[in-house]
Design a protein that fits this description.
- This protein is an alpha+beta fold.
- 27% of the residues lie in helices and 32% in strands.
- It is built from 3 helices and 9 strands.
- The mean pLDDT is 86.
Length: 146
């Protein structure tokens, strides 16, 4: 249970994956897709034109496992999803100290995996509030509710 203290464990995956992509993006002629527990970071190194080899990323339908709900195409950036379909109520609403167990999921696309993951988790806890804050504070990120 959340004690009210800062706990960075939810951020480590996105932070580590983003650090890896920072290294991959300096390799000449490389186009990459890094999967970090279902969250993805994609990019290209020097000498690869943006859009030359875009990645098609499918998001799973949280109500029908194995079914693709939506496909996005990108050459650089990140895709992060948060929900309860796969891991149950592992996302805790800090306002109530209770797990969020509603149906559906939220996916966020943006330039950095760490922040896409942060916004996806916040949006799963409170989609309306996170959607408003995302539009106002992080316009480079886009929220998709499934």
């Amino acid at each position: 249970r959340w004690s009210g203290d800062y706990d960075p464990t939810g951020l480590v995956k996105g932070w580590a994956a983003q650090g890896a992509t920072d290294h991959l993006s300096i390799l000449p002629g490389v186009s990459f897709c890094l999967n970090a527990g279902g969250d993805l970071a994609v990019g290209v190194g020097p000498g690869v034109a943006d859009g030359a080899s875009p990645w098609r990323v499918g998001t799973e339908d949280p109500r029908a496992r194995g079914r693709v709900a939506r496909v996005v195409t990108l050459s650089r950036g990140a895709v992060a999803t948060s929900g309860a379909a796969t891991r149950g109520g592992h996302v805790v609403d800090p306002r109530t100290d209770r797990p969020v167990v509603r149906e559906g999921s939220t996916t966020v696309l943006g330039p950095d995996l760490l922040w896409a993951d942060v916004w996806a988790t916040a949006a799963f806890v409170d989609p309306q509030l996170a959607g408003r804050l995302l539009a106002a504070r992080a316009p480079d990120y886009r929220l998709i509710e499934l």
